[in-house]
Design goal:
Helix 4 packs across helix 5 and helix 4 runs antiparallel to helix 6. The chain has 6 helices and no strands.
């Protein structure tokens, strides 16, 4: 060691996320910030929809699309975490594959290494949490975009009726 401090997995992940965030902010690629009106726009009931004018309905559509974009940005942050953890596990597993015989299934080797190696175990936890969040968000983003489409169509109908 040449005087460098070894970072923990969480510190490395934080550092990696900061680099990605700095790139996004530095190139003005920031997503839309959360707005409480987003949830209201995608949870209108039938009576509220009927009372909206064409222009108000179109504005609600914009809010729905903005909410979908916000959620997509959050989803993408979890993709980054998932990929970071998966790559880290892959590197650790590759280094330790030689201690297994050639007939052992790769999945068994990987899980054995993850169970025995504290760094791989922490990366696996990060990967599983990120994947669970991605799974929960994926269809919700599509549903909100679809609601935005529906609101646009409703706005057109209101305008021409």
């Amino acid at each position: 060691m040449n005087g460098e401090k070894r970072l923990t997995v969480d510190e490395k992940l934080t550092q990696f996320e900061k680099v990605v965030d700095d790139y996004i902010h530095g190139n003005y690629l920031d997503a839309i910030q959360f707005n409480p009106e987003f949830e209201q726009a995608v949870s209108l009931n039938d009576d509220e929809l009927k009372q909206l004018t064409s222009e108000e309905t179109l504005n609600k559509s914009y809010l729905a699309y903005s909410y979908a974009n916000y959620m997509q940005d959050e989803y993408n942050k979890h993709v980054v975490r998932h990929n970071f953890a998966t790559d880290g596990i892959r590197k650790i597993v590759t280094d330790e594959l030689g201690r297994f015989d050639k007939y052992t299934k790769h999945e068994t080797k990987e899980q054995s290494i993850v169970n025995e190696n504290s760094v791989a175990n922490r990366l696996d936890l990060i990967r599983r949490h990120a994947k669970a969040r991605m799974d929960r968000m994926e269809n919700r983003i599509k549903d909100i975009r679809r609601l935005g489409d529906i609101l646009i169509e409703l706005s057109k109908r209101k305008q021409y009726s």
